[in-house]
């Protein structure tokens, strides 16, 4: 997707980026109306995600997921290339999003694929902030100065619950896992203008009821990963994300999970072996396993890294 702050790095994941296009996002798996994913292979090819869920229901996504979300897929998976700073922003929680927008809220997480030497992510306020201090800095155009800035490197993990003010900085290349929601309250956009000479809309009044001013001391994580052992990066009511570094064949048993499983290949390639077939997954590709498929074996070719995502 074209973005004012986008770049060219999505080519590294096999995504089409033409000429000098500023492409900021690749929506890998989406149930968002107007940008819904379509099945690319197999006898269900060319069917939308919601159409497949409507037919196969809990066999596709799991009983508890289908009971809660129906045909709406609950997660949105993206790759993001920030060639410039994104706006400082916040997302509402479920209650506020339902009240205002008849939508889910937006809790998300970032996994850093790469970062340029000066790349930073913003997550939360500095200590001892409150609404009055925030409004003063917002009015003076100095909001950036009271935010927590974190230098980033490959493998860093950030969990961003709804209500936490945040921003992706210039030079960050990340994978994002989030609730299915496209609601963003933009607080500050560095006074930049689009190609029509207009500044982008801010949502400062809407954001006031959404912001959590609490200081968070552990916003950045960098977990140690053992090869061929799934490492939990983040887990909440909305999703669980594991990092798997494959060096040997790894069997996964999802019999007790009652959820779909997503594989997001971020390095190398691997083969998924399952009852009745095999599928090769290349760097930058995303696979959705139906809840009905309870056992698979992953074979690296010869090595691979993937994010494994599901709902517990």
From TrEMBL:
Cofactor: Zn(2+)
A GO term, aspect molecular function: zinc ion binding
Cofactor note: Binds 1 zinc ion per subunit.
Matches recorded under SUPFAM superfamilies: RmlC-like cupins (SSF51182)
Catalytic residues as annotated in Swiss-Prot or TrEMBL: 186
GO terms (BP aspect): carbohydrate metabolic process
UniProt entry keywords in alphabetical sequence: Isomerase, Metal-binding, Zinc
Domain Mannose-6-phosphate isomerase cupin: 234-299
Zinc as UniProt keyword: yes
Domain Phosphomannose isomerase type I catalytic: 14-102
Binding site for Zn(2+): 91, 108, 166
Record protein name field: Phosphohexomutase
Species this protein is from: Microbacter margulisiae
